[in-house]
Amino acid sequence: MKKAIIFDMDGTLWDSADNVAISWNIAMEKFGYEREPINEADMQSVMGKTMDKIAEILFDKVEGEERKALLELACKEENDYLREHGGVLYPEIRKTMECLKEDYRLFIVSNCQAGYIEAFLDYYQFHDLVEDIECYGNNDKPKAENIQLICQRNGIAAEDAVYVGDIQGDYDSSMAAGVKFIHAAYGFGTIDAEVVKIDAFSDLPKVVKTIF
């Protein structure tokens, strides 16, 4: 049975922060919400959080149903914009994933909204590389539970899976889910633990062999 590699999105496969900021500014203008324009740094600072937490930080002048409506509009604009424009893909993603797929099963789990992973897969035409996906926006479940869900749904034992992510929350979720972890050290965060790491995505085929 092939082992499984489960990928985070932001800071691991790509950096979409600049285009996400553009799309959220479009949404705020349509909604009539006034604040300083959201920039790339604002988005990078909240990447990895669930969408409700991001809205709480960036849309702090509204609450309740109004904030929910603004978030829904922002997510729709974001998915549409990314499906058309993409983001900044890290080097050698397709080549490396094609190599990995020969020996491993590949999945994506993210804290993003529904449709975000699909927009990524559509823009880069990566559907052939990824077997299954799950996200917070589909079921309101935290990342640890969605990692477990991917494993259960696809008949994968926890000890046969590794999660590749870039921030502390990714490590914590991996530990809670009972899977192995590899730190994408080129991403947005650091890990407060001794962990296996990659300094470039293309390092993954060599490094993953050391943990299984």
Give a short synopsis of this structure.
The protein has helices at residues 17-31, 40-46, 51-58, 64-85, 93-101, 116-124, 136-139, 143-153, 168-177, 204-208, and strands at 3-7, 14-15, 88-89, 104-110, 132-135, 161-165, 180-184, 196-198. The protein is α/β, with parallel strands linked by helices and 212 residues long. 43% of the residues are buried.
Task: Give a written overview of the molecule.
The protein is globular. Helices cover 47% and strands 16% of the residues. Helix 1 crosses helix 4. It is of the alpha/beta class and 212 residues long. It starts with a strand and ends with a helix. The protein has a six-stranded parallel β-sheet with strand order 5-4-1-6-7-8, with helices on both faces. It has a two-stranded antiparallel sheet with strand order 2-3. It has ten helices and eight strands. Helix 6 links the parallel strand 4 and strand 5.
Please give a handful of descriptors for the protein shown.
212 residues, 8 strands
Spans with pLDDT under 50 lasting ≥5 residues?
none
Percent range for β-strand residues? 15-25%
Helix content class: 40-55%
Shape: globular
- The helix/strand order is EEHHHHEHEHEHHEHEEH
Strand order of the largest sheet: 5-4-1-6-7-8
Mean pLDDT score: 96
Radius of gyration computed on alpha carbons: 17 Å
| Structural class estimated from helices and strands | alpha/beta
Total number of helical segments?
A: 10
How many β-strand stretches?
8
Terminal residue distance: 12 Å
Characterize the main sheet. Answer: 6 strands, parallel
